[in-house]
Design a protein that fits this description.
The protein contains 3 helices and no strands.
């Protein structure tokens, strides 16, 4: 699971298309095409570490 967090309310609204608390963002999977390659790379690395 991945999340994008920012301390900027405006930036979070731009990304999530709605108001999001940090707690909500941490529980919400990021699906934006810009972040998916990073999520896939992290999941690949974490899978190899197990």
């Amino acid at each position: 699971m991945g999340s994008v967090l920012s301390i900027s309310v405006r930036r979070n609204q731009e990304y999530w298309k709605k108001e999001m608390s940090a707690e909500q963002a941490l529980k919400t999977r990021a699906t934006d095409r810009r972040i998916l390659p990073l999520i896939q790379a992290i999941e690949s690395i974490s899978g190899k570490a197990k």
